[in-house]
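Input/output pair, single chain:
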Amino acid sequence: EKVITLYNGVDLERFTPPRDNAARREIRASLDISDGAPLVAFVGNGFGRKGLRFLIEAWPKVGRGAHLLVVGADQKSRWYQREALRLGAGTRIHFAGARPDVAQIFHGVNAFALPSLFEPFGNVVMEAMASGLPVLSSAQSGASELLPESMQRFVVHDPTDSIEFAQKMNALLDADGELRAVARATAERYTWQSYADKLLAIVSAIASGREAQPKP
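Output:
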């Protein structure tokens, strides 16, 4: 009963919804993806813990000709690329490596997915939402606790279950447009300034011997 959960913040100035379609066109042109095809981003290093294997296994079951853009680095990247080819999804899964322009990449995609097997929080989930992206997260990610009610149905309870994952990914892509404003509004509640204020309140309460319970 003395445990306090203080959620991380997100940089709302760096991660914003796109102002136009320039980044969308540029990213899709570089990958030779038509403008009408859904594009989902996965961002993270250490693909094993982030659940990329199971995302790749689910992708052949994801419809609408959707593409997956994998951003990040891993020593076994080639193995994941071969796995995508083996499953027949190699033409729809693109490995971009580590990139410094994640905020711009978010402007070029329809949605974000992070099926982590273990994730204390997952800052990138909130960064994607701040960019106006609907997200699919696993229940093992701390950030999933902050998803609005309209996105809770896209939380994957078993990220190793490719059928559950594909079903929820398809549903997310169908609901894409209606969730963008909700995603941004949710992220706006978790600024780093708010985080700092709550952290200082906790420190102040502890120093004065009071019960430290910051307001939500």
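The longest strand covers residues 39-43. The CA atoms of residues 43 and 102 lie 8 Å apart.
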